[in-house]
Amino acid sequence: MKKITLIISSLVLFIQISIAQTKLLTMEEAIIKQKTTLAPAKLKQLMWVKGTDKFSFVSEDTALITGNAGNNKRETIVTLSELNTNLVKEKFKSLEKFPTIQWKDANEFTFETEKTLLGYRTLAKYVSNPVKTIYKIASRDFGTGAEHNDVAATTGYVAYTIKNNLFVYDGKDKLTITNDADSNIVNGQSVHRDEFGITKGTYWSPMGDLLAFYRMDQRMVTDYPIIDWNVRPAKVNEIKYPMAGDKSHEVTVGVYNISKHTTVFLKTGEHKEQYLTNITWSPDEQHIFIQVLNREQNEMEINMYSAITGEFERPIHGEKNEKYNHPMHPIVFIPNKNNEFVMQSETSGFNQLQLWGYIPGGVSKRILDNKETAGDGKWVVTDFAGFDAKGEYLYYSSTQESAITRNFYSMNLKDGKISRLTQGEGTHTVLMNDAKTYFIDNFQSTTVPREAAIYSTKGKKMQVLKQSENPLKDYKLGQLSLFKLKSEAGDDLFCRMYKPVDFDSTKKYPVIVYVYNGPGIQLINNTWNGAGDMWLQYMAEHGYVVFTLDGRGSANRGLAFEQATFRQLGTLEMKDQMVGVDYLKSLKYVDSKRMGLMGWSYGGFMTTSIMTRYPDVFKVAVAGGPVIDWSYYEVMYTERYMDTPQTNPDGYKEANVMNHLDNLKGKLLVIHGAQDNVVVWQNSMRFIKACVDKGKSVDYFVYPGHEHNVTGKDRVHLFNKISDYFAQNL
What we know:
By secondary structure, the protein is an alpha+beta fold.
C-alpha cells in the first residue's frame, strides 16, 4: 500500500511540475526582471552592525530588523512609518521605502535624503528626537554640485569635490583644499581611467585628521569630441582620452592637514607618466605607501613617503615581469604592527597573499605557498577579507577547489595552516563582522538559487538566515551544463551550454555562441544559471543551443593563462573559441551551417575578428561596442596587453579588424552607443567606412544618448533587435 501511495504521489508531483513549468520568458522579464523579481530572493541590505555580533536587514522595505549571530531572536529597530514620523518632525519629506543605510556605530545608522546625510540614533534616550542632521550637501557649507563625498569614519569630516576642486567640511567650516582654475587639473577624483583598482580620489588617514588625494593634470592629453545630439544644434562635449602610444596624463598625490590647513605633495619622481596606484596609510599616520608602476607596466615598486614632509623615503618592495604587472590591491597592515603587511602578488604565477616586513626591509615569509597545507599553489586569491583582532589569522576567498568555484578560508600567520570555512560546491560570497568572529555566507550554485547563513570563524554553521526558492520554477528553461574542453596547449577551457527547451536529440538546432574572452573577466562560474545572462535562457527557449567558452586571456586562471595573449590580442583567443566550435560541430543535434556569434566590448572585438579571420564558421554575428583598432583605445588598458603601436607595430596590424575585412562573408550587425566614452564611436565608424570602401555589406545601428552600454528600458529594445537579427538570418 505504501508503494502505491508513493507512486501516486510521485505522479501527482510530476503532473503539477509539468503544469507549472509552462511559462516562457518575455524579453522584458529576461532583461529588466532578471535582477529583481526573477532573481533569487535575498534579505535586503543584509549587513553587520558596526562593532558588534549583530546583523541587520530591511524587511519588505518597511522595517529595519536586527538579529544576533549566536541566536535566532529578531528585533525591529524602526519601522518605515516611525522613521517617516520623525523625518516629518524635522521638516523632511516622507519616504516611500526604507532608505539605504550604513551603521555609524552600534547605536546609530546614517542615510541620505533630500541631499542631506542624516543620522538615526537607536538608544532609548533619543526616543523623542532620534533624527539628526550630519551635513547638507546642498547647503551653503557645501555649495552647488558637490560630489564624491567621502566621510572620515573617526572624525566625521567630509571630503567632497565641486567640479575639479577639492573641499572638506569639518562640521563647522568649508575648507578649500585646492583652487585650480584650469578644469583640466582634476583634484580628489579617480585617476588613470579607473584602472589598477582605483575607484576614488580621496583617502582619509586612520585617525581622520589627514587627507591624501589625487591631483591629475590632463592638459597634455588630446581632447576627444563626444557629440550631444539632444540639443539644437548638436553640441560637442570634449573629454580627455589618451590613446595607446600618445601622451598620457600626469598624477601627483597631495596630503592635507586639517588642523594646520596645509598641503604637502609627495615627491613621487620625474617619471611623470607613471601610474600611482593603491594608496595606503601607515597605522601611525607617519607614512604613505604607493604602488608606483612605470608606463610600460612591467616594473612596480611599493614606495614609502613621509606624510609630514612629502619626502620619498625608500622602496620597500619591487616586482618586475617581462610582460606586465597589474597591481590591483593596496597593502594591508597586520593589526598592532606598523611594519608588517600583507600584499596580493602574482610573483608565483598566481594571485596570492604574501607577508612582508619593511623594517629592516627583508621578507618575513610567504604565507600562501605552503605545499603541505595549500596544495600546489596553482590557484587564485579572489578576495582578502582581513585579520582577526589579534593579528593571528587572516581570511580570504580563493579558487583552490576549482577555477569556477569560490570558498572561504582562514590562515594561521604563525604556521601557515589553512582551514576551509565554507562547504558546498559553488560560490561563497562572504561578509565578516568587525571582530572577525563571524561571517555571513551568501552561497549559490547551478542548483542552489541562494542561501544566506551565519558561520563562526571556526567553521560552525550558526543559523540560516534565508533559503531562496527557485524564482524560475514556473518557467520552461533550457538544460544548463558546465564542462571543460582542452586548448591546443593543454589548458582547461571552461564552457557553459544551454540546450533548447523541449530538447530532442534527433533534431538539428541552430547555435549562438556568446563571447567575451578578454582580460579581467570570467564569464563562467558555478553560480545560479551558471553566471549567464537571462537573455541566454530566452534564446534557448526560442530553439537555440547557446554556448560560451572562457579561453586563454580570461581571468582567475593565473598569469601564464592570462598573459598568453600578450602583444597579440585576439589570436590565441580565437583559436580557443574554435576548440568550442569544433566541439559544437561534433554534436549530432547541432546544425553547423546555422551558427551565430554575439559579443560586446572586448566581445565585440572578438566577434568582428572571428568573422573576418574565420569567415566560414559563423553565418550571422552581432558585435556591440567593438574595439576595431587597438591604437584607438586608451593608454592604460591597451599598453598593458599590447605595448605601444610604436613598439609593437606587427601586433597592432594583425589585431586590426579592418586589415582582414576582405575575408568577411556572413551577415554582421554592428551596434554602438553614440556617446561611448570607453570604446569611442570612431572605432565602428571607421570600420563601416572600410566596409563601404571594400564593397562589404554590413548592418549598423546606433543608440543615441547611451555610452558603452545600452541601459534602462532601451536595453529591451537592444536585445529585441539582436534576437530578431538572429531569427531573420539564422
